[in-house]
Amino acid sequence: MEYMLFICSDPTAPKYVAAEDNIVEWGAEMEARGVSRHGDRLRPVEDATTVTVRAGEVVVSDGPFAETKEWIAGYDIIACTDLDEAIEVASKHPMARFGKIEIRPVWPLGE
Amino acid sequence: MVPEPSDVQTAIETASALETARITATLIRVTGDWSLAEDCVQDAFARALVDWPMRGIPRNPAAWLTTVARNRAIDRMRSAASEKRAVRELAILTALEGLEGEAESDPAADDDRLRLIYTCCHPALPLDARVALTLRTVAGLTTGEIARAFLVSEATMSKRLVRARAKIRDAGIPYRVPPPELISERTAGILAVLYLMFNEGYSATGSNSLIREPLVREAIRLTRLLAALLDGSPQEPEALGLLALMLFHHARRRTRTDAAGDLVTLEEQDRQSWDRAAVAEAVALLAAADQMAISRRSQPGSYRIQAAIAACHMTASSSGTTDFGQVALLYDHLAQIAPSPVIELNRAVAVAMSQGPEAGLALIDQLDLTRSLAGYYLLPAAKADLLRRLGRKTEAGREYQRARELAPSEVERRYLTKRLAETTAGSPSSSEYS
To answer: pLDDT over 90 for what percent of chain B?
Structure first.
């Protein structure tokens, strides 16, 4: 099964400590296990653009689609046997400690 | 020979208690379809209700029910799959046809039931859904019965169950007994669900208590089943501890309120009316759990400690002979593994009972200053009681008033009003604790 990890900021989480950031090791492990499909950081919400089409008109607005204290700082698409493996993968990600991670199952079209 | 209706009734109830989880678990394993499995098991019992009174109780009710449920599943899958017979469905049908009416002692059946319980209590499901799904799938209660016990409409409960099953399927919640690295944490999760189920039923008062009684009964039965399934594992002592704790509470169910429905505190309860058999069983379970824990080197968890505290109360012949020093020690231990201000409050009360009201009052005052229990009526109630024992009536009255304003229900308010009146009337009264 494929899952998407939303790597989120969390203002209530402990402060980021560069020395405790194991993202490189995490990436290497998930690559070696064949879990990683694709993933990256995202530029901050200041760089977000939201697009809507209403009555045929394209409306472009600056900023994210929702104003929240937490925002999505990155994403990963992972392939796992089940939710327990996805939880284990997410729990090893540094942002599980410095932020929070939402796991969502990918829902393929036609299913 | 046509059996007695009461015999049929008993046979069906026994089979339901013993077999529901096993047959449902097996059908889920083979078909992967939760609602199909639950429906087919319910259908099998419905058939038994019609069939057994006429043709007699089968020699092996478990095998009979499994076969009927299995055939029902085959019929339903055939009619659903007839249009496009997918390979997967054919494979499931073949597996279903190979299912025999397995015996109760079959170890594979035990695994199936454990798998079912762990999946129903998976932490990715909302807590209320875990409780509901366990009652529906493991205990075999109908959606209507569960809805009534939770005081919600059947439609609401049905939606909750549908969502939970959908999440198991769509989010890929595994149908399995968790691997060793997860087993301790996940078992603790199951115990929490079972204790929540018990408390939902146990804390109910008045007219609701009868409606919610099935929650208490099922929680005890399921904890018993879980403990049996965990036989020999490091998790078994804690499951037995929870079972003992439930039985201790349950043993004094009849004495918690009086004929008028008013609260009766532990100290004032009629100890002769406690269920002695339940107390004896709980004491034995706790001793067995302690013995096991020593040989398996497992530390006592919060349920075993709470059961040990309950044992101090339940085995004392009167409130006066309760070993409150031991109770205070156990609360101390509990506070170390599961720190909480409620535990601190209980410890303070035990200290008051063993060392005198002043010592307890000092601890409660400290706790009051932290405001961590602001809004919790039992803090001012406990404080009021200690002040009353010390003869500080005006202060006691003020605390009773504060407690009454925070009391969650009419029963507690009535009790506190009575106490408050006694303080202002100045009559000496006996002490109390709940």
So the answer is: 63
* Centroid of chain to Cα A20: 19
Residue-wise pLDDT tens digits, B341-398:
999 999 999 999 999 999 999 999 999 999 999 989 999 999 999 999 999 999 999 9
SS3 A58: strand
| Comparison of pLDDT for A55 and A110, the residue scoring more | A55
Tell if the CB–CB gap between A82 and B170 is shorter than 8 Å.
Answer: no
- Residue pointed to by tokens 């279903």: B96
Cα B339 to Cα B2, B246, B250, B324, B342, distances in angstroms: 60, 21, 26, 20, 9
Closest residue in B to A4 (Cα–Cα): B171
**Nearest residue, CB atoms, B182 vs list A3, A80, A84:** A84
Q: Which two tokens stand for residue B305?
A: 């400690």
For B427, the token pair is 């009559």
Residue B349 corresponds to which tokens in the numbers above? 């009360």
Q: What angle do CA B284, B290, B293 make, to 5 degrees?
A: 140
Residue that the structure tokens 């404080």 belong to: B383
The 10s digit of each residue's pLDDT in B191-212 is 999 999 999 888 776 667 777 8
Token readout for A90 is 């997410």
Q: What is the ipTM of this complex?
A: 0.91
Instruction: Report the chain A residue with the minimal C-alpha distance to residue B170.
Output: A105
Hey, is the C-beta of A42 within 8 angstroms of any chain B C-beta? Answer: no
Label residues B243-260 b or e (16+ Cβ within 10 Å = b): bbbbbbbbbbbebbbeee
- Say whether B170 and A84 touch across the interface (CB within 8 A): no
Return the residue matching tokens 């020979």.
B1
How far, in Å, CA of B368 to CA of B21, rounded?
Answer: 47
pLDDT of residue B433: 44
For residue A93, what pLDDT band results from cuts at 50, 70 and 90? Answer: very high
Q: What is the pLDDT of residue B3?
A: 81
Tokens of B225: 């089943």
Count of CB atoms within 10 A of residue B103's CB?
Answer: 12
User: What are the backbone dihedrals phi and psi of residue A109, each rounded to the nearest 5 degrees, phi first?
Assistant: -60, 140
What CA–CA distances, in Å, run from A110 to A107, B88, B167?
9, 17, 18
Q: Which helix (H) or strand (E) holds A78?
A: strand A72-79
Residue found by looking up tokens 């799959």 in the block: B81
Residue B83 has pLDDT above 80, yes or no: no
Q: Would an 8 Å CB–CB cutoff place A82 in contact with chain B? A: yes
Tokens for B302, please give them. 């919060």
Cα separation, B74 vs B380, whole angstroms: 61
